[in-house]
Design a protein that fits this description.
This protein has 146 residues and is mainly alpha-helical. It has one domain (4-145). It has helices spanning 4-7, 14-31, 34-50, 54-80, 84-90, 92-109, 113-122, 126-132, 134-145. Helix 2 (14-31) packs antiparallel against helix 9, helix 4 runs antiparallel to helix 6 and helix 6 (92-109) packs across helix 8 (126-132). The longest helix is centred in the middle third of the chain and has 27 residues, at 54-80. The chain is globular.
Length: 146
Amino acid sequence: MGSLVEVLKDPAIRPQVIADCEKMLDAEVADKRGISGMGVKAAFKTLKAIKPGMIRHTLDDLIDELAVKVDPFWQDCQAQGANPRTFFTQNSKAIANSLLEITDGRASQSKFKNIVRAYNTLRPKAVQYIGDAMPRFADLVSKYAS
């Protein structure tokens, strides 16, 4: 059984994981529809406009903590011999809440008011949005931790 935490220690692979995470985020944002989707797209656009490269930098900053939160779910998935997409989708609320512990903590300490405002706008639906991303997220974890 692989570990995302261990994979991220490889300096040749880490940038690939971060790039794939960024692509996953872009795809998830692009898929959002309706009024709430417009809000997500606007918030994402604002974040990107504040500082180009900020998404990649933020992912690089958060990825080790995120991997620590994801690894127990990945290990359970592997131990059960479960399909990663199915397992991650079925456990999406628990995974989302685990990941959001990190971003909630970071947001509460951030000095960037515009970013915190954008985060707080999206936060009420964050568990749903993360749940929607579980198939792509499971593919990403499978790609690197298998």
